Amino acid sequence: MSADVQASTPMGGDPQHGAQPEPKHGRRLLWILIAIVVLGLALLAGLLPHYNRDKIVNARAEQQKNALPIVEVQTVHSASSEQALTLPGTVIPLRSAHIYARASGYLKTRYVDLGDTVRKGQLLAVISAPDLDASVAQLAATVQQSKDNVLTAQSNLRLQQATYGRVHTLVLHGILSKQDDDAALAAVESAQSNLEAMQNAVKAAQGALARTQALADFEQVRSPINGTITARNVETGNLVSASGAAQGLTAEPVGSSGGPPTGGAQGGELFDVVDLGSLEVFVSVPEQDALFVQTGRPVDLTLSELPGKTFKGKVVRSSESLSQQTRTLLAEVQITDPQHRLRPGMFASAQMHYKAPNPGILISGDSLLSLARGQFVPVVENNVIQMRQVNVGRDLGTQVYITAGLKDGDIIVVNPNDAVKQGARVTARPAPAGQQGGGN
């Protein structure tokens, strides 16, 4: 029996040491379970925010899907009858003279140069024309000879009249015949006719002399107005012609090529004289604004070369007819510049002020929709879009005047998008001040 007991017990072993592997295996399972739980909690902590965010995003998307489109709007009002129109113009002199030669010859003397101030009638240059001077002398001699012929005819007439008186007396006493009386009377009448012919010859010669003398007077080139020499195209010794057409060289205006005057022109312009104290601006007014151009209305002129300076003027006249080529009305604006700061040829911006009886409503050009059926402006009424068909008046580029289709106080959509359609429900909010088109 003791042998059996010994056989059931391992050699060298202890009954208490045989149960040690079971506790180690249980602890391993426990740690695995703990790790799985921690990992699950970590995954749950990471996925839960994503789930909540997706849920919020989906809710917002659903809300936006069902929400009304938002449009920016502004309230429009009738424009003031006091309107201003800004148009480009060019400064030109009110009085100017382009001086050409009326006598052919060589420029003998030049007394003025570019920029000189001259008076009316002042001598500018002298042209040497010997052939014209010779014609004057020849015609003067012809006039004198004609006058001498008149004196001779007068003497002959007196002689014939005296002869007729003696013959007629003798005829009355019966000494001479009636035929002798008729012959003497015919001699008187012939002498009278000859005297009248000589007198007419004097008048003809005097007329020819006056014409040639007038041309000779043009050898002295004089200024017809008070002003300033703005162009000088000749020099002493240049050949000038009264034909009015250039031959050979042509006169080049001063400053056209950046250099000095070239001169040397036959039939070309000799001088330009401009009165810088009286200037005006011509403005081409578009057809849609031509009806509002009123004589006497004020005009403000600004020039880029003179920043901050405003010159006052007024409309003095207009062409009263539109050009068929440009469909514009030519208006003349007279300006005041006592300090002589303006120069002919300057580019000016003319702001014309006038009263418009029905100017309309000024809106942004982005609010105007051009459709196949016409031009429309979307108006918001009770959060519903109403497409109003309108008539467009003046077009200022970024802004337009609506003359029909809108009324004072309408709320229009600024810069409408594809969602703006007839009958569409929208949510309106005021547009930023910088995006609104028209003023009150």
Q: What form results from the Cα inertia axes? A: elongated
Question: Which percent range fits the helix content?
Answer: 25-40%
Question: Structural class, from secondary structure content?
Answer: alpha+beta
Biggest beta sheet attributes: 6 strands, antiparallel, barrel
Folded structure, characterized:
The protein folds into 5 domains: 32 residues; 88 residues, Beta Barrel (conserved putative lor/sdh protein from methanococcus maripaludis s2 fold); 81 residues, OB fold (Dihydrolipoamide Acetyltransferase, E2P), CATH 2.40.50; 88 residues; 77 residues, Efflux pump adaptor protein, beta barrel domain (Elongation Factor Tu (Ef-tu), domain 3). It has 440 residues and is α+β, with helices and mostly antiparallel strands. A hairpin with a 2-residue loop joins strand 18 and strand 19.
Descriptive keywords:
OB fold (Dihydrolipoamide Acetyltransferase, E2P), 6-stranded antiparallel beta barrel, single chain, alpha+beta, conserved putative lor/sdh protein from methanococcus maripaludis s2 fold, 4-stranded antiparallel beta sheet, disordered N terminus, 5 domains
Fold topology:
Elements: H1 2-8, H2 21-66, E1 70-75, E2 82-93, E3 96-100, E4 105-110, E5 117-118, E6 123-128, H3 130-172, H4 178-217, E7 220-222, E8 227-232, E9 239-240, E10 269-274, E11 279-286, H5 287-290, E12 298-303, E13 306-322, E14 328-335, E15 347-355, E16 361-364, E17 369-371, E18 374-381, E19 384-389, E20 391-395, E21 399-404, E22 411-413, E23 427-430
Helix pairs in contact: 3-4
